């Protein structure tokens, strides 16, 4: 899948939320024990250390890739750059500093895997802890991290809702505009390999780093010709997405390495099922 696809963006957000879960759980423990990591805002709504730190860390994840970010919390007094880590008047205790640093480094690493500026037309709307009152009253299983992505017109494009305090954490994500790709990924049950370039993706197949290359849009012939020739020469396939027909520039594509050709019909059935639920954008 393309580095600039919403499926990859949401998958990365899910991984980031997974990394944040340990930190959220640690702060939840403090709030539940003695309320030391929570306070009230001017409007009398609850604000916790988790609200501030999670939003700041998600900003680090997404800021290099989008034009602007809208978060619920005021970030003017939130800092995750260096200890002491703070969110307004709330300061992370010393015993949390190593966890904050570790989480920050992992989130930064995930950010580096996304294509820079690839989502400049999307605006993330972040609620770092949705259900803060429940968070502060020992009902953490009702709390979620919400990350939505809006188009320039304000339309909801993609999103993830993540429960960090259930065991295990639970979440749902989706993008109606990329329903085919996401449905196919769910059907195949595999993870995403972040990669750019049609030629590079063909090499990843031959090197055993990925099992299939499926793209819900066309690519130019100068991108696809060499990749197709090499894959087919080694016993793989490179074809139209919806049918095993010669590839053309204006359709989605489907490619397998020789090592996966024995499973060709299984892949084709998965494509047919996903297409029945969400017709591909280009094919």
UniProtKB/TrEMBL annotation:
Alphabetized InterPro entries for the sequence: CysQ/Inositol_MonoPase (IPR050725), Inositol_monoP_metal-BS (IPR020583), Inositol_monophosphatase-like (IPR000760), Inositol_monophosphatase_CS (IPR020550)
Enzyme Commission code: 3.1.3.57, 3.1.3.7
A Gene Ontology BP annotation from the UniProt entry: phosphatidylinositol phosphate biosynthetic process
Keyword Metal-binding annotated: yes
Keywords from the named record: Lithium, Magnesium, Metal-binding
One Pfam match: Inositol_P
Annotated catalysed reactions: 1D-myo-inositol 1,3,4-trisphosphate + H2O = 1D-myo-inositol 3,4-bisphosphate + phosphate; 1D-myo-inositol 1,4-bisphosphate + H2O = 1D-myo-inositol 4-phosphate + phosphate
Domain of life of the organism encoding this protein: Eukaryota
Cofactor: Mg(2+)
Positions annotated to bind Mg(2+): 72, 127, 129-130, 223
A molecular function (GO) term: metal ion binding
Gene3D superfamilies xrefs: 3.40.190.80, Fructose-1,6-Bisphosphatase, subunit A, domain 1
PROSITE patterns registered for this protein in UniProt: IMP_1 (PS00629), IMP_2 (PS00630)
Family: Belongs to the inositol monophosphatase superfamily.
Protein name: 3'(2'),5'-bisphosphate nucleotidase 1
């Amino acid at each position: 899948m393309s580095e600039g696809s919403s499926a990859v963006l949401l998958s990365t957000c899910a991984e980031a939320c997974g990394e944040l879960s340990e930190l959220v759980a640690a702060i939840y423990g403090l709030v539940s024990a003695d309320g030391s990591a929570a306070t009230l805002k001017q409007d009398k709504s609850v604000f916790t250390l988790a609200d501030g730190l999670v939003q700041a860390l998600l900003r680090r994840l997404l800021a290099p890739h989008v034009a602007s970010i809208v978060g619920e919390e005021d970030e003017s007094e939130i800092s995750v750059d260096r200890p002491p880590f703070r969110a307004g008047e709330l300061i992370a205790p010393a015993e949390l500093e190593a966890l904050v640093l570790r989480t920050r480094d992992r989130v930064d690493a995930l950010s580096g895997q996304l294509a820079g500026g690839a989502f400049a037309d999307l605006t993330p709307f972040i609620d770092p802890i949705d259900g803060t009152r429940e968070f502060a009253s020992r009902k953490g299983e009702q709390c979620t991290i919400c990350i939505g992505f809006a188009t320039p017109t304000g339309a909801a494009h993609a999103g993830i809702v993540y429960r960090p305090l259930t065991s295990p954490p639970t979440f749902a994500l989706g993008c109606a505009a990329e329903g085919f790709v996401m449905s196919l990924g769910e059907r195949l049950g595999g993870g995403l390999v972040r990669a750019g370039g049609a030629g590079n993706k063909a090499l990843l197949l031959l090197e055993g780093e990925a099992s299939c290359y499926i793209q819900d849009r066309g690519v130019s012939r100068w991108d696809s010709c060499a990749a197709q020739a090499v894959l087919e020469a080694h016993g793989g396939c490179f074809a139209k997405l919806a049918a095993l027909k010669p590839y053309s520039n204006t359709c989605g594509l489907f490619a397998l390495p020789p090592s996966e050709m024995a499973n060709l019909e299984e892949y084709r059935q998965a494509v047919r099922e996903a297409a029945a639920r969400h017709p591909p954008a280009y094919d």
